[in-house]
Amino acid sequence: MEDWDFVRRLERFGPTCCIKDPPLVTSSRRFAGRHPVEIVSGWIRIHLLYWLGLLYWLGVSPDRLNEIYRTQAPSSRTRCVARRYR
Fold first, then answer.
1. Nearest Cα to 4, choosing from 63, 41, 51?
2. C-alpha torsion sign, points 86, 25, 37, 43
3. pTM of the predicted model, to two decimals?
4. Which of 25, 38, 61, 70 counts the most CB atoms within 10 A of its CB?
């Protein structure tokens, strides 16, 4: 949530811009060997973070946001897989 807060404060000083060129290129290595269900569950977690950002913007307390996030936190197995690709 700190990054959302930072961007919100930054935009008070002027408009932000989108850098379109050169295009962003990413690697698919982090998905190699992962089960499709695991990949989809990761996408669901990402969308949960967007919802948490909306709740933060609406004024929900950080303690409540933490409680919501903890119930949706990735399992220890998923964390180990994520560390392997860093």
1. 51
2. positive
3. 0.39
4. 38
